[in-house]
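Reviewer 2 asked us to include a model.

Predict the structure of this chain.
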Amino acid sequence: MTRLLIVHHTPSPHCQAMFEAVVSGATDPEIEGVEVVRKAALEVSASDMLAADGYLLGSPANLGYISGALKHAFDVCYYPILDSTRGRPFGLYLHGNEGTEGAVNAVDRITAGLGWEKAAEYVIVSGPPSKSDLEACWELGASVAAQLM
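Predicted model (structure tokens):
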């Protein structure tokens, strides 16, 4: 069985709605053979990252950057996983009111350094997530999970 690790920082109702939609997509009953593990960004360890075959990252965009929690997760895990996770697929969902470009750039740089492969288009939402935004989050979760089948 392959493992999909969802690393998230979910401090607001908008982020929570997006997280729940991503989880719902990743755990769709039609996706078989994929264990979905959820870890708060402040709790994730290098062992968690090494045990995963793919990743979904979720964060608010704070002041033009990823959340401090997601940055902390990468600070703690980056070098211990650097040579062991190359080529693994990942997806990203972000919620922000403005300045999401900086958060996207940060994730792009970090994941490029790790050698991860972008598995789906990012979902970036400003303001309250609409029905179509939540559907996009569901698709993101399902798409990345399905690639691990």
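The chain has a mean pLDDT of 96. The CA atoms of residues 42 and 140 lie 22 Å apart. We have added this to the supplementary material.
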